[in-house]
Predict the structure.
Amino acid sequence: MADDGNGPASAMKADLETITSLAKQRGFVFPSAEIYGGFAATYDYGPLGVEMRRNIRESWWQWMVQGRDDVVGIEGAIITNPDVWRASGHVDAFTDPLVDCLQCNARVRADHIVDGVCPSCGTKDRFTEERDFNLLLRTSVGPVADEGAIAYLRPETAQGMFVNFENVLNSTRRRLPFGIAQIGKSFRNEITTQQFIFRTREFEQMEMEFFCHPENALDWFAYWREERMRWYQSIGVRAEHLRFRDHDEDERSHYSSATTDIEVHYPWGWSELEGVAYRGNYDLTVHQEHSGKSLSYFDQQAEEHIIPHVVEPAVGVDRVMLTLLMDAYDEDEVAGEKRVVMRFAPNIAPVAVGVLPLSRNDKLLPTARRVHDVLRPHFRTWYDDAQSIGRRYRRQDEIGTPLCVTVDFETIDDDAVTIRDRDTTEQIRVPISGLVEALRGRLHELQPAVDDPAPIPERS
Ligand code: GAP
């Protein structure tokens, strides 16, 4: 792969075209409304895609909320009072700088142009003046579509946490520091949307606002950066594909006083996967000003009212999914034949255990069905008896199933089956009576190792 001028070439084995094609063929991601010619930068998720997205959300929620005692969840409205977006600065300042190419009329983001070259037609230095383009998607609410009815589809889930700060504080009787987390759809009228599901107009975010005392907010910022990197370890993203990058002062969002991106080395260069932002007390302050309601917190240690500061890790489900698809793609050789294998971690793989009778022979099928029934309550399973066993192993490898269980003619006599490992292709024989335990143990062994957590910041 070519060097992108941004460090060494990506170590990823797949390009975007390969992943887009595999995702469609195997049922991860489809172009939206394809029978009508699709719709720009909009995708539908297929049977394997939805399983994978559930696993991503589940793992994030476990890591950020259920596995801790200092973070709680909410689900806010997608369309809410437009004053929220006036106060947050999105109506005025949520813009991208745009220019038009005078040669091909393509509308492109000025900050995405490299060396004055149009990314659409390659012409150099022939652009209109730069102007700001607001990314909010508008709708109208109620029977009359006049100015007073304008509302917005939320461009981030974060504001739902800020406007509910007081409600969560009062209903859960929390003390600082604590976080509020949310997973949900967000919408932006994005202009540059080339890289498959990397940047779309409708996407799903996983965000957490961590409210803390200003005195140790920077320590929490450092803590959450590490904690987020550990999550990527836990879902199996290879360390060599990830890095931290601190934002320069002039590229930070209007609310942020420090931001670090977790970046991925995609085939087109290093790009943002997740942002970890230190938002200061910007959001609570502006909502207090605009709503006229106090959003202060009485700090018993200091015996004073303060506006808490906020550290925010924010990422998109779709971008995590693209990263996992690209990162997990591998090609090797098995029995002299090339195979494509998705090396998903077990907690992310859409199917954890494939159940495959050796053939469609009548003697095998009832036992294979019985084995599937035994496993179904415990794992995400997939039963497949079409085509040769070799073809079916390849299919499971290509969708990243870590383990397959094969029912053969010996099973009828010894009530045992074979477990086949995706990565090593090794097979072991296990009695059906101990199969659930054996699979659980093996899936656990296959989970990637994770570094120890950073110490929890203390206040002096
Ligand atoms: N609340 C802060 C916020 O929304 P952001 O950097 O604009 O910050 C956070 O978005 C994350 O959401 C990004 O790092 C990315 O993973 C995801 N994201 C943002 N815009 C996206 C889009 N148009 N398509 C897909 N994912 C997007």
Summary: The CA atoms of residues 42 and 397 lie 28 Å apart. The pocket of glycyl-adenosine-5'-phosphate is lined by residues 156, 158, 188, 190, 199-200, 203, 205, 207, 272-275, 312, 314-316, 318-319 (CB under 6 Å). The mean pLDDT is 94.
